[in-house]
Protein 1
Amino acid sequence: MESRLLPKHYLDAEVFKREQHLIFRRLWLFAAFRITLAAPNAFATRELGGLPVLLQNCDGEIRAFENVCPHRQMPLQKESFGHARMLCPYHGWVFDNFGKVKSIPHEEGLYAYSVEERAQLCLKQYSVQELGNLVFVNLDSDPLPFEEQFSLGLQEKLRVISGHFGAQAIHTVLPARYNWKLNYENVLDYNHVPYIHPKTFQPLLRKQVAPTVQELPTSASLEDLNGSTSEPGRSRHDLAALSFWSRSPIHVEQWPWHEFVDRYGEGDYYYNFFLYPNVNFISLGGLTFLLQQFHPIAPDVTEVRFTLCAAKETKRLPGLPAILWGHLKGEVAVLREDVGYLEALQAGLHPDAPRANHGRYESRLIDVAATYLRLMSEDVA
């Protein structure tokens, strides 16, 4: 089947601008692991939907604000992670846990705001949804219900698996020269693994077959391949049908530290969660948990954000930071293999390029494209 997406959907600046407004500023977006925001005044800064976002631990509750002081538009927090109260470094304005101005140095003599003017001096606040140890943000003033994007069954699975997160997480970013949709399409395409990752990821798989889909199969062809059935009442074109999970048998090399963590699951499985629009969350044997987010920078530029943690320690592991960095190094190496090919794919695109021709196994790519066009208010006939 010929793809419904045109080359312009991967190349055009106007299309990219519309994506930011119609997809990334309307859908729920992953923002951080809750464990990184556990301490009082812990914060994380993100760009989401082209907007600067500040996540702050406000007396135990995670709140999200636009990371812009209403005085002169200075970011309140400049680092990606840290611990600090909400204080503008430019002129010393302090904000309370609800984003309202708490104090302004020399306010009476220098500013002379009226009562009405001062009441308007607050940070713009965004909606936050915590799901276990995963924190999501919605930038829309009237956000869609969370269950419209992620089914209740998937939410419960994410809540349980993220409950096994340990207290330490590490992060890194990999810049890449391709459109964000190519990366999301790539993780949905299991058939590329033996060709792109024959020495890194492929040898770990015990069965060289398509993974068994456990949640929300979206088309008859996928049901035939995996013997699965759809969730009652769900259409393959529902937004929530784009997010699902699977597991595949995998070989996990045993290390001594495995005995000292609260492992998730039933043994040596590769757990794979696809969270639309731009997240692939995976667990290797319930021992390590990696979230990849394909963050759009420009039509042909994507920032791949990695966040990795291990399962909760049952005994203190002094070498855990080194263990995590070793695992992250391996995950980045696999992604770099993808990057080389995806950058070549992007470089070969041009306005008159032919559309992709999907095979039977690529039914999810077809469904993703159809829903994408609907979100973009484009004809999907």
Protein 2
Amino acid sequence: MIRFEDVGVRYGSGKDVLRDLTFDIKPASFQFLTGPSGAGKTSLLRLLFLSLQPSRGKITVFGRDADSLSQTDLPGIRRRIGIVFQDFRLLDHLTLYENVALPLRVRGYEESGYRRDVIDLLKWVGLAERVDAFPPILSGGEKQRAAIARALIDQPEVLLADEPTGNLDPSLARRLLRLFVELNRTGTSVVIATHDLDLMDQISARRMVLNEGRMQIYA
């Protein structure tokens, strides 16, 4: 689905943030992306989401060379890749229902065609009673689950999550991990960036470990 070949990233005239990355994300796969702070995890997620261009190397996404994609191609490709940001990025003036529905609304879909899907998705992430709530009154865990629901509303083939359990207690972190595992079982490839070793020990999954810009992969 996604392949990196000798990919590197450098910001300005500074040193390489990422170097010589060669790996792939296979269909229906599950992997953790880990490494110390400053190792380049967020930069790698941006490369995967096509919001950052590599300084060198080749990225292939769904069989297409990322360098060949035009600005009109990118939205369609990105709809196949969901992303959950570390800071949630929910809009405080919209209800949870409206936040989750927003990607479909901005594309001009009629609410009658997606209302049931949005409500069912909020139920799936355990927010059935919070459909009409606004983000400022929600807990961190509720915001995180809402952000996951919004990332999933377009039924992506790949889901990227940046430190999704970083500020949660262990019990809620395990609950969120189970949601990701269930999603993976439906066929979505999952990439979770995390430094939480206890979380990674909960399941058997590939580990992509960044250190000083280079990657080692453990099955």
Protein 3
Amino acid sequence: MQGIDPHAPVVRFHNVGMRYGGGPEVLRDISFTLARGAFCFLTGESGAGKSSLLRLMYLALKPTRGVTALFGRDLVTVARRELPELRRNIGVVFQDFRLIDHLTALENVALPLRVGGARGDDVKKHVADLLRWVGLANHIDSYPATLSGGEQQRVAIARAVINRPSLLLADEPTGNVDDAMAMRLMYLFEELNRMGTTVVIATHNEQLVGKFDYPRLLLANGVLAQDGP
């Protein structure tokens, strides 16, 4: 695979539009750039297009038109066989968690490391330490079905950040936790950002956004109303 350019913007969208099937465009003329190490919030009313924009960024969807690039790679020209390698540089916190039911919390979080070829006791210790940090020390060997929604969310967040991705996309990552844990998770995202990860957090929580001095991408009816970064 052609190497990722460390000096290129992590995300670049230019005049991007997207529709589902033959319906109207849910995103229209979206243009923005995220440099390496950026941290921004993605905000907007329900139905504004936040989840669709995130899905474009983590390569679950293709735009109907326009230019999308990740890590300096134009996604129109990237070969299909190269997409898995690009995806391994992206951590995603899904709103519906997407944990694997037959794996324990530790095994779920370790999955990105295992896929990357890591083995041994160091993986187990690293994962266990992170689960303790997010308040799940007593649930390391628990299965998703035995965990509350907030606990599952924290497992999903730990899985997304365990391998220090170049790009972290989080869809409502604090939606099922109390205010104290929400702040603790935000500090985790900030620490990851300080180590070089570009972070995008989609949220409805204006109170949370107001506590941090980060720019925002504001979507309104599928249009980017404010280009913070």
